[in-house]
Amino acid sequence: MLTIRRDDGHIDTHGPGIYFAPDPFAHEASLLQDVEGPVLDVGSGAGRTLLWLDRKGVEAVGVDLSPGAVNVAQDRGCRDVRLGDVMDPKGKILGDDMFQTVVVFGNNMGIGGTYEGAEALLHRLACAVMPSGQALVTGLDIAQTNQPHHLAYHRRNLDKGRPRGEIKMRFEYQGATGEWVRWFHPEPDELARLARSAGWTVERIGPAGGPFYAGVLRNAR
Ligand SMILES: C[S@@+](CC[C@H](N)C(=O)[O-])C[C@H]1O[C@@H](n2cnc3c(N)ncnc32)[C@H](O)[C@@H]1O
Questions:
Q1: Which of 103, 107, 108, 200 has its CA 20 to 30 A from that of 24?
Q2: Tell me, which fold does domain 37-146+155-219 have in CATH?
Q3: pTM, to two decimals
């Protein structure tokens, strides 16, 4: 099992198979119904969404920071997966490529690590998406909990003047331990605020089943 350990000791475990699922998750499916390429998959991991898009005949490019993830995605048949940091302000990895749709799945709004980082990510993505192009975003609605340890974590953040959803976590798998990384789970209203200030209009953001929300943002440039 893969363990995700938060810095307060809370752990989530799941099988690595979720990163290899052949079909989109239920909370992603409706977003992808009319997806238009070319698509940029941000933090494409093992190529879960890229392979599905490929089967549908939709042109797509993946970007991932992890050489291991890029290798796995390429081995699985993903045609265009690039190794790089999507936050790179010089945009080396995307060059002048422009996309009709950007997909931010697997809680990947968190990549920026903080509220400010999420705003920078959304700015970066707005520059890579054609006028009137869209961003499809899913996330975890972290406020939907009554678990005392989650509520205590949120309270500590709020007391520091930070959003509830800023966390530090690391991955552990079969004896290997990753670095601690900052991750940010924006709440739906925070995502809306961030999107507007980063040059997007909010078409919709709403519950998507279970603890998840799904959103469609439209490039306002
Ligand atoms: C939680 S996994 C999600 C993978 C995939 N989107 C999915 O839903 O199956 C997050 C992925 O984002 C990648 N990642 C994290 N920070 C990144 C960055 N700054 N630029 C590009 N990829 C990044 C990680 O290497 C990892 O493969």
A1: 200
A2: Rossmann fold (3.40.50)
A3: 0.96
* Segment 192-209, tens digit of pLDDT: 999 999 999 999 999 999
DSSP output for 100-126: EEEEE-SSGGGGG-SHHHHHHHHHHHH
User: Measured between alpha carbons, how far apart are the two ends of the chain, in Å?
Assistant: 43
Q: Which atom of ligand 1 is nearest to the CA of 69?
A: 27
Q: How far is the centre of ligand 1, averaged over its atoms, from the C-alpha of 186 (Å)? A: 16
Please determine, for residue 92, whether its predicted confidence score (pLDDT) is greater than 80. no
DSSP letter at 131? Answer: E
Pocket probe for ligand 1: among 25, 31, 64, the residue whose CB has the most ligand atoms within 8 Å is 64
Distance between CA 193 and CA 196 in Å, rounded? Answer: 5
Report the DSSP beta bridge partners of residue 216: 136, 204
What percent of the chain has pLDDT above 70?
Answer: 99
**Cα of 96 from ligand 1 centre, angstroms:** 21
- Alpha-carbon distance of 86 to 75, in angstroms, equals 21
Q: How buried is 174 (Cβ within 10 angstroms: 0-12 exposed, 13-18 middle, 19+ buried)?
A: exposed
